[in-house]
Design a protein that fits this description.
mainly alpha; 2 domains; two-stranded antiparallel sheet; HTH-like domain-containing protein; HTH-like_dom; Transposase_IS3/IS150/IS904
Length: 157
């Protein structure tokens, strides 16, 4: 708009561009006073603070923890804003992936003998049966018992 002011009316240009005339003049004042708008300056300040908190946490904190730290310092900022700035800066927190070992074998324990010699289908039903127990959380257990002859026939068929 600034380059076209000599040839066109500011009010008409503002109406055509769907912006307010007062907003355009405020923009000119801010630009004349300092080339950085308050919004851009606030974002730059947040970027510096976010980077500082991320480095202080040994690059492990994500947006929720950094947001909490900034709020503890008195900064009024949303978690979405912190997350967006972190994406723009190319930094991210570390989410530890927990691995829970559910079975611990005793190397000194004797294993039960293989009574079927790994041959599960003996040619007719009711000779070899298998069972399995599946545990999901503390309240849900599933026990499955099946005739391996029928399982082998179904797999072959």
């Amino acid at each position: 708009m600034a380059s076209e002011c000599a040839d066109h009316d500011v009010t008409r240009m503002a109406k055509l561009l769907d912006v307010s005339t007062s907003g355009y003049y405020r923009y000119l004042q801010v630009r004349a006073a300092s080339e950085v708008s308050p919004r851009v300056q606030r974002r730059r300040d947040l970027e510096v603070k976010i980077l500082a908190h991320h480095r202080a946490s040994h690059r492990t904190y994500g947006s929720p923890r950094i947001t909490a730290d900034l709020r503890a310092e008195g900064e009024s900022v949303s978690a979405n804003t912190v997350a967006a700035i972190m994406v723009d800066l190319g930094i991210e927190g570390i989410s530890p992936r927990t691995f829970k070992t559910t079975t611990v074998t005793d190397p000194a324990a004797a294993f039960p003998p293989d009574l079927v010699g790994r041959r599960f289908d003996r040619g007719r039903p009711d000779l070899v049966w298998s069972s399995d127990i599946e545990r999901r959380e503390a309240l849900f257990n599933r026990v499955e018992v099946k005739d391996l002859h029928h399982a082998a026939v179904a797999a072959a068929g």
